[in-house]
Design goal:
The structure holds two protein chains of two kinds. By secondary structure, chain A is of the alpha/beta class. Chain A is 20% helix and 21% strand. Chain A has helices spanning 32-38, 83-94, 112-118, 131-138, and strands spanning 2-5, 8-10, 15-16, 28-31, 49-53, 69-76, 100-105, 122-125. Chain A has an eight-stranded mixed beta sheet with strand order 2-1-8-7-6-5-4-3. The longest helix of chain A is centred in the middle third of the chain and has 12 residues, at 83-94. By secondary structure, chain B is an alpha+beta fold. Chain B folds into four domains: 6-61 and 68-110, Alpha-Beta Complex (Sulfite Reductase Hemoprotein, domain 2); 127-290, Sulfite Reductase Hemoprotein, domain 1 (2-Layer Sandwich), CATH 3.30.413; 308-399, Sulfite Reductase Hemoprotein, domain 2; 414-549, Sulfite Reductase Hemoprotein, domain 1 (2-Layer Sandwich). In chain B, 37% of the residues lie in helices and 17% in strands. Chain B has helices at 6-27, 33-41, 65-78, 101-110, 143-153, 226-240, 251-258, 260-275, 284-293, 307-315, 317-326, 354-367, 390-399, 430-439, 443-449, 511-525, 532-539, 542-549, and strands spanning 45-47, 52-56, 62-64, 82-85, 91-93, 127-128, 168-171, 185-191, 197-203, 215-222, 327-329, 335-340, 351-353, 371-374, 380-386, 414-415, 454-457, 471-478, 481-488, 500-501, 506-507. The chains are: A alpha/beta, B alpha+beta.
Chain lengths: 172, 552
C-alpha cells in the first residue's frame, strides 16, 4: 500500500487500534463504531484523530463532532461502488469539513480526477507507481460542465456567440 | 440545433485522449478486463457475442445532416456498411475493432459527437420527443433542457458510479412521444397558474425484469431548480440504492422498497439543503444562450394554399398512404413532419445502410434545413418539410427503399438485437420481427388495422420494450428452445401501462401464427373505428386467450 497526496508518495502516519489497545504518540484512525464507543474516553486525547467511514455510515449524526477530526477516510469496497463520492461532497459542502479527505480501498488511477473534484486530497493505492499519473489526470480537462468541489466550471459568458462557431465551422 | 463551441470540442477531444490511453493500457495488460469494463462502458463500448459494439450518442435524438454523413462514413470505414438506430435514439455499430475505436471517436469528435455515457452505471444519454420544437401540440420545447441536462450529466464527478444505469427522458407535449413514465426520471414540461415554466417530475419508472410505471414525485418544479432537484434525487439514490444485486439496483426498486412518500420526503429534504447554497440554479443567461441555438429556422411564410400537395395525393394512392401514415402535424402552417420508417417488410428494425444514411442527409439538406431526428421506435424524422416538397421527397425516399408507409402500424416494430448479437438474449428477436413483417406485408391491411405497437425483446431485460407494447413478445429459453411469451395492452405514452401476460409461451415456429391469431381476434371483436387498444380495453384479455388456447 502507498499513500498518494498531491501527486507524491507520502508516509502514512496514521495508525489503527489493534488488539484492543490504543497506540500512544501517533495519529489515530477510528471506524465510526470505534468512535462511538470511545468518544468519552478520547475527550481529552491530544493526538490527531481520524475517522474511517463505510458507504453505509450515516453522516448526519457526525456533524457536531466533525471538527475533532483531521482526517476522514472514505472506503471504496469496490472501485465501482460510488457512494463515497456523495459522502465526500456532503462532508465538504454541506457539513463544511475542511480536514484531509482520503480515498481508501479499491480505487483506480482513472478515478483520481473525479475523486479530486469531489473533494478528496489523498489516495491509498495498491501501487505507488500511479503517483506520477495523478497530475496528468487532474489537469487533463480544461474545464467541466458542472460545479463540484474542485475544477473550473465552464462559464456561459466565456463561450462563443452562436453566430461565430470558431471551431469546425464546416461541420454544420 | 445545438452547436459545439470551442469548449465542447476541446472537451470531447480530451475525453478521446483519455480513453485512447485506457485502451492502450488494456492492450498492454496494465488494466484487467474487470477494471477496463466500466471504463469502456462509460465510453459506449460493449463486448457482445461476436465482437465489440460501439454505441454512439445522438443527444435527445437530434443530429445534423453533416453528422449523419459522418455516421455513414464510420459505418462504411469501420463497420460492415450499416448502423443500427436504437430505442434510446442512439446508433450502434456492431463490428468495430478495439484498436479502431479511438479513431472512430476522433472522427465523431470532429463533428461534435461522442459515445460518452451511452452505457455503464451512470446518467445515460438524455432522450426526448423526436418532434421537439416542431410538434403542433407542444407546450414547451424540451431540447433546451435536454441539452442543459446533457451538459450537466457529462462526466459528473459524483454520479459516474451509480448503483445502476440511469435514464432521463423529457417531453414538452401533452402527448408523450418520449415514454417518460418508463424512465428512471421522466420530465414533463408545463406552466403553473402564473405562466411560469416548470416540470412535472416522475421517478422510478422502468422496464427490464421488473417493469414499473414511474410515479410523480413533484407536480411542479420551477425550471430554474431543475439541476438542484435532479442532484437531490441522484444523491439519494447513489447513497441508498442497492449494490448487492444487479437486478435490484435500479431506482425503481428503491422507490418501491421505501415507498414514494418516504422517497419524496428524503429527496425534498436533500433538495431543501442544497437548493439555495450549492449554486445549482440555472442562470437565465445560460438558459438563453442554449435556447438561442434552438430558434426556429427561417420558415417561408405561407401566402397561399399550395394545391399541388393535395393533387399529388389524389393522383397517387401510394403517396397518399405514405402521407396518411408517415407525416404529422407541424406547428408552422404549410409545413409537415415526416417519419422515415426503418422497418421495411422483412427487414431488420432500426438498421440503415451507409447509403441510406447519406440519402437521408441529402434530403434533409435539400428539403429540411439539414436537420434529422431519431425516434425511440427506431425510425428517422425530417422535422421541417414544406408540404409542397413532400411529393418530390417521397419519390426520393421510394428510390432509396425508405418510403414504407407503416409508422405506428403493426409492422413498425421495435426489436432488440436478440440472440443474433447479444450475449444476454435467450431468443432471437430480429428473425421474428422479419417474419411478422412478411406476414403483415399487405400495406392496405396493415393500415386498416390501425395503430398497433408490436415490440420484441429477446430476454427479460426488455431492451425491445415489450412490456409497453400493445402486443409484446418476450423471448424465453425453455430447455434450450426459443419460446415467446405474449403480452397485450401495454403502452408507452402519457397513459403508460404494462401489458398483461396472455398465457403460456409459443415456440419460435408458432409465434407468428399466434400474433396473427391476436390480430384476427381483434378484427372480430373490433367495433367501428376502434383501435387495437380501445378494443382490448373494452373486451379484455378473455377472447384473445380463447382463440390462442381454445380454453373458456
Amino acid at each position: 500500500m502507498a499513500l498518494v497526496k498531491h501527486g507524491k508518495i507520502q508516509e502514512d502516519a496514521w495508525t489503527r487500534i489493534e488488539n484492543d489497545s490504543l497506540p500512544l504518540g501517533r495519529p489515530l484512525l477510528l471506524t465510526k463504531e470505534e468512535w462511538c464507543c470511545l468518544a468519552a474516553t478520547l475527550r481529552h486525547w491530544e493526538q490527531p484523530l481520524g475517522l474511517l467511514l463505510e458507504g453505509s455510515d450515516s453522516l448526519d449524526d457526525l456533524r457536531p463532532v466533525l471538527d475533532r477530526f483531521r482526517l476522514i477516510a472514505l472506503n471504496f469496497p469496490k472501485f465501482t461502488d460510488g457512494r463515497a463520492y456523495s459522502q465526500a461532497r456532503l462532508l465538504r459542502k454541506r457539513y463544511g469539513y475542511s480536514g484531509e479527505l482520503r480515498a481508501v480501498g479499491n480505487i483506480l488511477q482513472d478515478q483520481f480526477l473525479q475523486m479530486h473534484r469531489c473533494g478528496f486530497d489523498s489516495y491509498e493505492v495498491a501501487d505507488g507507481k500511479v503517483a506520477e499519473v495523478w497530475a496528468v489526470a487532474i489537469h487533463r480537462y480544461r474545464g467541466f460542465y458542472q460545479s463540484a468541489e474542485r475544477g473550473q466550471r465552464r462559464e456561459g459568458a466565456a463561450t462563443l456567440p452562436v453566430e461565430q462557431p470558431a471551431a469546425a465551422a464546416w461541420a454544420y | 440545433m445545438y452547436r459545439y463551441d470551442e469548449f465542447d470540442f476541446a472537451f470531447v477531444k480530451q475525453r478521446v485522449d483519455e480513453f485512447r490511453e485506457q485502451i492502450e493500457r488494456r492492450l498492454a495488460g496494465e488494466l484487467t478486463e474487470e477494471q477496463f469494463k466500466p471504463l469502456r462502458l462509460m465510453n459506449g463500448l460493449y463486448l457482445q457475442l461476436h465482437a465489440y459494439m460501439l454505441r454512439v450518442a445522438i443527444p435527445y435524438g437530434t443530429l445534423s445532416s453533416c453528422q449523419m454523413r459522418r455516421l455513414a462514413w464510420i459505418a462504411r470505414t469501420y463497420d460492415r456498411g450499416y448502423g443500427h438506430f436504437t430505442t434510446r435514439q442512439n446508433i450502434q455499430y456492431n463490428w468495430p475493432r478495439l484498436q479502431d475505436v479511438p479513431k472512430i471517436l476522433e472522427a465523431l469528435a470532429e463533428v461534435g459527437m461522442h459515445a460518452i455515457q451511452t452505457s455503464g452505471n451512470c446518467i445515460r444519454n438524455v432522450t426526448s420527443d423526436p418532434f421537439a420544437g416542431v410538434a403542433a401540440d407542444e407546450i414547451e420545447d424540451p431540447r433546451v433542457y435536454a441539452e442543459i441536462l446533457r451538459q450537466w450529466s457529462t462526466l459528473h464527478p459524483e454520479f459516474s458510479f451509480l448503483p445502476r444505469k440511469f435514464k432521463i427522458a423529457i417531453t414538452g407535449s401533452p402527448h408523450d412521444r418520449a415514454a417518460i413514465r418508463v424512465h428512471d426520471i421522466g420530465l414533463r414540461m408545463l406552466r403553473d397558474e402564473s405562466g411560469a415554466p416548470g416540470f412535472e417530475v416522475v421517478v422510478g419508472g422502468g422496464q427490464g425484469r421488473t417493469p414499473v410505471i414511474g410515479e410523480t414525485i413533484r407536480k411542479f418544479l420551477p425550471s430554474q431548480h431543475l439541476i438542484s432537484y435532479l442532484e437531490a434525487i441522484l444523491r439519494t439514490y447513489n447513497l441508498l440504492g442497492r449494490r448487492d444485486n444487479l437486478y435490484k439496483s435500479r431506482i425503481k426498486i428503491l422507490v418501491k422498497q421505501v415507498g414514494i412518500e418516504e422517497f419524496r420526503r428524503q429527496v425534498e429534504q436533500e433538495w431543501e439543503a442544497i437548493r439555495d447554497g450549492w449554486q445549482l440554479d440555472l442562470p437565465d443567461a445560460e438558459v438563453t444562450r442554449i435556447a438561442d441555438y434552438f430558434a426556429p429556422p427561417r420558415y417561408e411564410p405561407q401566402e397561399a394554399i399550395d394545391l399541388s400537395f393535395a393533387t399529388a395525393q389524389r393522383q397517387d394512392p401510394a403517396f397518399a398512404q405514405w402521407v396518411r401514415c408517415n407525416t404529422f402535424a407541424h406547428r408552422q402552417a404549410g409545413y409537415a413532419i415526416a417519419v422515415i420508417s426503418l422497418k421495411p417488410e422483412g427487414g431488420i428494425p432500426g438498421d440503415a445502410t451507409a447509403g441510406q444514411m447519406e440519402r437521408v442527409a441529402d434530403l434533409a439538406d435539400r428539403y429540411g434545413f439539414g436537420e434529422i431526428r431519431v425516434t425511440h421506435e427506431q425510425n428517422l424524422v425530417l422535422p421541417d418539410l414544406r408540404k409542397a416538397d413532400l411529393p418530390a421527397l417521397w419519390q426520393a425516399l421510394v428510390e432509396a427503399d425508405l418510403a414504407v408507409p407503416n409508422v405506428g402500424l403493426i409492422t413498425d416494430m421495435i426489436a432488440c438485437p436478440g440472440l443474433d448479437y447479444c450475449n444476454l438474449a435467450n431468443a432471437r428477436s430480429i428473425p421474428v420481427a422479419q417474419r411478422i413483417g412478411q406476414r403483415f406485408a399487405d400495406r392496405a391491411l396493415a393500415e386498416e388495422l390501425g395503430p398497433i405497437t408490436l415490440n420484441i425483446s429477446g430476454c427479460i431485460n426488455a431492451c425491445g420494450h415489450h412490456h409497453v407494447a400493445n402486443i409484446g413478445l418476450l423471448g424465453v429459453d425453455k430447455k434450450g428452445r426459443e419460446f415467446y411469451q405474449i403480452t397485450l395492452g401495454g403502452r408507452a405514452d402519457e397513459e403508460a401501462a404494462i401489458g398483461d401476460i396472455v398465457g403460456p409461451a409459443f415456440s419460435y415456429d408458432e409465434v407468428v401464427d399466434a400474433v396473427e391469431s391476436v390480430v384476427t381476434t381483434y378484427r372480430g371483436q373490433r367495433q367501428q373505428g376502434e383501435t387495437f387498444l380501445q378494443t382490448y380495453r373494452r373486451v379484455g384479455i378473455k377472447p384473445f386467450k380463447e382463440t390462442l388456447y381454445g380454453t373458456g
